[in-house]
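Question: Now follow the chain.
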Amino acid sequence: MQPAERLFQITQLLQGGTLLRAGDIAAKLGVSPRTIYRDMDRLVASGLPLSGTRGTGYRLAQTIPLPPLVLTPDEL
């Protein structure tokens, strides 16, 4: 899985509003918890309103609706 795809998947998992631990996210995505910690740092740096810390879990501070992905026939 590419890093951009993984970041998107993490964002989708966090949309549920529940507290998720890095180990749980890592198991769902097939990566190490350390990778998730790095990804969380990237998401916070990009402006995603995450709350939580390593060891306790993460959740979105507020729900962010993502726009639908619209592709042209050529892009498909």
